Amino acid sequence: MVVLTGEALTLDEVRRVVFEKEQVTLSDDAVIKIKVNRCAVEEMIEGKETMYGINTGFGKFSDVVIEHDDLETLQLNLIHSHACGVGDPFSETISRTMLLLRANALSQGYSGVRPALVNQLIDFVNAGIHPVIPQQGSLGASGDLAPLSHLALALLGEGEVFYQGERQQAIQVLAVEGLTPITLKEKEGLALINGTQAMTAVGVIAYLEMEKLLHQSELTAAMTLEGLRGIIDAFDEDLHYARGHQEQIDVATRIRQYVSGSSLITKQGEIRVQDAYSLRCIPQVLGASWQTVLYVKEKLQTEINAVTDNPLIFSEQNKVISGGNFHGQPIAFAMDFLKLGIAETANIAERRIERLVNPQLNDLPAFLSPNPGLESGAMIMQYSAASLVSENKTLAHPASVDSIPSSANQEDHVSMGTIAARHALQMLQNIRRVIAIELICAMQAVEYRGTDHMATKTRAFYEKARRIVPSITKDRVYSTDIEKLTEWLKADNESDVTVSNHKGGVLHE
After folding, report:
1. Is the distance from CB of 26 to CB of 115 less than 8 angstroms?
2. What is the distance, to the nearest Å, from the Cα of residue 472 to the centroid of all Cα atoms in its chain?
3. Residues 22, 2: contact at Cβ < 8 Å?
4. CA distance 345 to 2
5. DSSP class per residue in 190-236
6. Where are the domains of the chain?
7. 335, 344 Cβ separation under 8 angstroms
């Protein structure tokens, strides 16, 4: 059971709730904090104090004072008018993550909502009710208004949800689960949609996927080293300590352990003096990609426990403060940075694919074909990989450098953080296919060399992957192989990717 306090949610707990369906509850302390600040909101309303979004309009309408009898209607109108998302819906995984993160953000109490609203979000998570949320339409400030409005609709019994594998009307699913549609009170509509939970949810999923993909890329690169009789000296511990980047040191350590015992790996001068950069510089490039991942992890860990609403209620200080915590710039930058790591991990993998299939760069059968000339083998797989990395280069353009004013220039600078996060996730689908193609080619190369000469770890990885995609004995429709292996890489949780460093510690997991 994951207990929400608003302050201590971890990325591992998010993973368990989202992927392992662990149940969620609200802490007793959080309930107290929520109630205290809700009382403060109600007292200020009774005192007829002017508070943004509580008894005023929104955005450019912030100077319009709303009559007391219309305050609940104001919140409902906000959700209806802001539910302008378009395009394909987010996956259930991301929708589920958004529910969890929004519940956690409201758990600190500063948003001035009732415990019932937070519990409705938690009930959705525990029952597996996932709002249908269009992907496009957010500027990333004032928070993810459009996506979160669609999330809010479902809480009201409106819109659609994914439930038990089907897309259904929210009101019908609520009835099945014995849940009552929430009626929004003062401030609660604004509290639901003023936040960065769409971009952060996508960012969390992107981070988790990239972490796994980097490990898989390292394992695949190790197999490619065997297939190309790569030189182990370039992974020497002293060489990498001389530069000092810990992530680079860690990658080199893992590669050495992955190929330990392999008789396919060569020494400097045994066959050639130096390998090409795509082999020799694996630790330097993938180590730098790990740096982007670790930076993103740090920012996400902060953001999943952040209060990103506006205004915030500080009852102990008797303050209601309008600010800009909804601005997504930290996550926008983080996602754009992650995109660079994704792009370069794919770029160097594609170059290794080229070295595996190009007969001018190796001593393997041309294009790994079982019958070169009559059969093309892996020739066009490299084309597909090249296309994917080229597409990634366009997606890697930073979304965060753009800003378009909105709400009659009241909201005159926005983050585009959700676009950055969505592009990162798109790029991850591309890189997974590139790694799948490299793995297909690497497996073919080590078969040519003799799999009995492989290292224990790479051999185990090879045998698992071979159960998904058979050896190339004649030309076939390779698209099917690529997609099957891509799906396996996405689902694989069995790869032995935890190794020890020379001091006995555990490297990145």
Report:
1. yes
2. 34
3. yes
4. 34
5. HHHHSS-HHHHHHHHHHHHHHHHHHHHHHHHHHHHHHHTT-BGGGG-
6. 2-195, 203-228+277-307+329-398+416-491
7. no
Token pair belonging to 328: 């997504």
Q: What is the pLDDT of residue 156?
A: 98
Up-side HSE of residue 57: CA atoms within 13 Å toward CB? Answer: 10
124, 130 contact by CB (below 8 A):
yes
Hey, which residues does 56 pair with through a beta bridge? 65
- Nearest to 357, CA basis, from 338, 373, 376: 376
Tokens of 289: 């990609």
**Per-residue confidence band for 493, with pLDDT thresholds at 50, 70 and 90:** low
Length, in residues, of the chain: 509
Question: Does the domain made of 203-228+277-307+329-398+416-491 have the CATH classification 1.20.200.10?
Answer: yes
Catalytic residue among 52, 258, 462, 478: 52
pLDDT in tens, 229-276: 999 999 999 999 999 999 999 999 999 999 999 999 999 999 999 999
Residue 277 known to be catalytic: no
DSSP string across 39-73: HHHHHHHHTT---TTTSB-SGGGGGPBPPGGGHHH
The separation between the first and the last C-alpha atoms of the chain, rounded to the nearest angstrom, is: 23
Q: Which residue's structure tokens are 């959080």?
A: 30
* 129 close to 154: Cβ distance less than 8 angstroms: yes
For 160, 360, 362, 453, 474, the CA distances from 366, given in Å and listed in that order, are: 53, 8, 9, 22, 14
Q: Helix or strand or coil: residue 248? A: helix
Question: What is the residue-wise DSSP string for 6-39?
Answer: SS---HHHHHHHHHS---EEE-HHHHHHHHHHHH
pLDDT the model gives residue 20: 96
Instruction: Give the whole-angstrom CA distance, residue 482 versus residue 234.
Output: 30
CA 435, CA 216: separation in Å to the nearest integer? 8
Per CATH, 2-195 and 203-228+277-307+329-398+416-491 having the same topology is answered no
- Answer yes or no: is pLDDT of 494 > 90: no
Return all residues near 18 (Cβ < 8 A) that are at least 6 apart: 93, 96, 97, 100, 205
Q: How many Cα atoms sit within 13 Å of 54 on the Cβ side?
A: 26
CATH of 2-195, one of 1.10.275.10, 3.90.25.10, 3.40.50.2300, 3.60.40.10: 1.10.275.10
Q: Helices (H) and strands (E) in the chain — how many of each?
A: 18, 9
Measured distance CA(34)–CA(48) in Å, rounded: 21
